[in-house]
Amino acid sequence: MCSGGGPVITMETNWFVKYHCNNCGKMFKAMGKTPTCPSCNSEDVVNHSD
Ligand SMILES: [Zn+2]
Predict the structure, then answer these.
(1) 5 alpha carbon to ligand 1 midpoint, in Å?
(2) Which of 4, 8, 15, 38 matches a 20 to 30 Å C-alpha distance to 32?
(3) Ligand 1 centre from 17 Cα, in Å?
(4) Distance between CA 20 and CA 8 in Å, rounded?
(5) Are 47 and 19 spatial neighbours (Cβ–Cβ below 8 Å)?
(6) With a threshold of 0.70, does the pTM exceed it?
(7) Distance 36 CA to ligand 1 centre (A)
């Protein structure tokens, strides 16, 4: 056991998903499974990532 001081690699998976609001038509990026539209707070959004 002579390991110590190794680099700690933290992979941050901060990938954003594009969403399109069906209520007001706004496109936005969000994280999470159930995002809400930042403009009208509608939950009627669709994943618009390609
Ligand atoms: Zn909206």
Answers:
(1) 49
(2) 8
(3) 15
(4) 37
(5) yes
(6) no
(7) 8
Q: Which of 23, 49, 47 is nearest to 35 (CA)?
A: 47
Tell me, in angstroms, the distance from the centre of ligand 1 to residue 46's CA: 11
What is the token pair recorded at 30?
């969000």
DSSP secondary structure code for residue 45 in this structure = E
How confident is the model over 6-40, as pLDDT tens digits?
Answer: 777 665 556 788 999 999 999 999 987 789 999 99
Question: What pLDDT was estimated at residue 1?
Answer: 64
Q: Residue 37 burial by CB count (10 A; 0-12/13-18/19+): exposed, middle or buried?
A: buried
